[in-house]
Specification:
Layout lengths: L4 H13 L5 H26 L5 H11 L5 E3 H8 L3 H13 L3 E6 L2 E9 L1 H21 L5 H21 L1
Antiparallel strand pairs: 1-3, 2-3
Helix pairs in contact: 1-2, 2-6, 3-4, 3-6
Length: 165
């Protein structure tokens, strides 16, 4: 029995009690959740030795991937999928550690800019390989065409989700 069998059994029980329950779609939804949770656990395990968690890593990675390694708080929060209060907490921690710095945008003192420091850049450059090496293992055995197809399906699913929300 694998880790998902018990979940699948529960979904089947719901279907028995509620015939209109969309079993196949709900099974896909739960699989997506299990995959996302498993990936987050793998990422956090890789991050632990750097005294980081997923939210800290996302801020550093997003800044590293942003032109100029700098972003305003609103854009950064959206890119990291973090609410303002949590982004503030994460940024406070990263700033205390010297990994990011806050400043104002030239010409607009109300806009807070968050930038990667040299220390933050050095850390994310060490961390990224540990994270992507785990990701590569999760996709072991997938042909390039399968990965492309999976990306296309996820893109459609995200587009549908964006229509709803």
């Amino acid at each position: 029995m694998n880790a998902f069998d018990a979940t699948y059994q529960r979904l089947q029980t719901i279907r028995t009690r509620m015939p209109e329950f969309p079993l196949e779609l709900m099974r896909l939804l739960r699989m997506t959740y299990h995959i996302q949770k498993g990936m987050k656990d793998l990422t956090n395990a890789a991050l632990r030795k750097y005294d980081l968690v997923d939210a800290n890593y996302m801020v550093l990675a997003v800044l590293y991937g942003t032109e100029g390694e700098s972003s305003n708080a609103c854009t950064l929060g959206t890119a990291c999928h973090e609410k303002p209060a949590n982004l503030t907490r994460v940024c406070n921690d990263l700033e205390e550690r010297g990994l990011i710095q806050r400043g104002t945008r030239p010409g607009d003192r109300r806009s807070v800019m968050i930038s990667l420091t040299e220390q933050g850049r050095a850390l994310i450059e060490k961390v990224l390989p540990d994270v992507y090496e785990k990701t590569v293992l999760v996709y072991d055995g997938f042909a390039p065409e399968e990965l492309q197809q999976l990306e296309q399906m996820f893109t459609r699913q995200l587009r549908n989700l964006n229509k709803i929300t």
